[in-house]
Specification:
By secondary structure, the protein is α/β, with parallel strands linked by helices. The protein has a single domain, classed as Alpha/Beta hydrolase fold, catalytic domain (Rossmann fold, 3-Layer(aba) Sandwich). The chain is built from nine helices and nine strands.
Length: 267
C-alpha cells in the first residue's frame, strides 16, 4: 500500500480515526530506567493494562540527540491507548553504529521483559525511529534483533542499503563519516537482511530531503518481494525535521496514516 494525499483523504473520510482521539491535553511525565548501556523513559496512562507499545529511537546523525526529544509523540500515543518508550543509546564517536544497534536491542529486551508491570503488552510492541533512529530500528528489526516485535514504523532515512547509496552518489559527508568502512556496509544495511523471509508489517515514511524517496521506495519494494506487508507514505510535503516534529500534532497527515497503521497492526 502506498499512501498519497488522495488515499489519506479517503481513509479519513472512512472514519478510520474517530473524532477527538488525535490530541492529548496534558503533557505526560515518564518514569526513567537504566537498561544497562544507557537510560530509557516509559510513558504509561494511569491504570494502563495490556496496552500496545511504541518503542522509539531518536535521530541525530548517530552523534547527537536524547530520549527527551519526542515532541508530541507521548501525549498523542497515550491519548490513543498506547504506552510509549523512548531510549538513549551511546553516541559516536564513543560508540560505533554496530554498538548502537546492540544498545537498541538491549533496550528492547529490557522493555519486553518489564513493560507489563507498566501496563504494556510485550507482544504488541511497534519499533519506531526517525533518521539515525529509523536506520537503527530498521537494521535491528530486519536482522531479528527485536524478537516478537509486532511492527516497524520507519521515519525518513537513506541508510537502508549503504552499498547502493554509495554507488548512486548518495554517500554524502555526514554518512561517509559514519559509515567510513565499506567492509561494514553489508552488515549495517537493513536491506541485507530482507530476502528469504517475511518481516513484521512495516510503515515507511519519507520526506522531500534528497534521496529519501528513492531509497525508501526501493526498500519498500524489496520488502514487498519478501511477502512483507508494507505501507509507503509519501511525505514529500515535509522536511526531514518536520516529518518527525509534527508527528502527533492535530490534523497532521503522517500522524493520521501512522495511527491507521498502528491500529491495524496492534489494535
Amino acid at each position: 500500500m502506498t499512501i498519497d494525499r488522495r488515499t489519506l483523504l479517503l481513509a479519513s473520510m472512512a472514519a478510520l480515526l474517530p473524532a477527538g482521539t488525535l490530541a492529548a491535553r496534558d503533557k505526560p511525565s515518564p518514569e526513567t530506567f537504566d537498561y544497562g548501556p544507557a537510560k530509557l523513559d516509559i510513558y504509561a496512562p494511569d491504570g494502563a493494562r495490556n496496552l500496545p507499545v511504541g518503542f522509539f529511537v531518536h535521530g541525530g546523525a548517530w552523534r547527537f540527540g536524547k530520549r527527551s526529544q519526542v515532541n508530541a509523540k507521548p501525549a498523542f500515543l497515550l491519548a490513543n491507548g498506547f504506552c510509549f518508550v523512548s531510549i538513549d543509546y551511546r553516541m559516536l564517536p564513543q560508540a560505533d553504529v554496530a554498538t548502537q544497534a546492540g544498545d537498541v536491542e538491549k533496550a528492547y529486551a529490557y522493555i519486553r521483559a518489564n513493560i507489563a508491570r507498566h501496563g504494556g503488552d510485550p507482544n504488541r510492541i511497534v519499533g519506531m525511529g526517525h533518521s539515525a533512529g529509523c536506520h537503527l530500528i530498521a537494521l535491528t528489526g530486519m536482522r531479528g534483533g527485536l524478537p516478537g516485535v509486532a511492527g516497524l514504523l520507519l521515519d525518513d532515512t537513506r541508510a537502508y542499503d549503504l552499498a547502493a547509496l554509495a554507488k548512486n552518489g548518495g554517500m554524502v559527508r555526514a554518512y561517509a563519516r559514519v559509515f567510513s568502512d565499506p567492509s561494514q556496509w553489508a552488515a549495517l544495511s537493513p536491506a541485507s537482511y530482507v530476502d528469504g523471509r517475511k518481516h513484521p508489517p512495516t510503515f515507511i515514511a519519507y520526506s522531500r530531503a534528497e534521496g529519501r524517496g528513492e531509497q525508501s521506495t526501493a526498500f519498500a519494494e524489496r520488502l514487498r518481494a519478501s511477502g512483507t506487508d508494507v505501507t509507503l507514505f509519501d511525505g514529500s510535503a515535509y522536511t526531514h525535521l518536520s516529518i518527525n516534529r509534527d508527528f502527533g500534532e492535530e490534523g497532521d497527515a503522517l500522524t493520521i496514516a501512522a495511527l491507521a497503521f498502528l491500529r491495524s497492526t496492534v489494535g
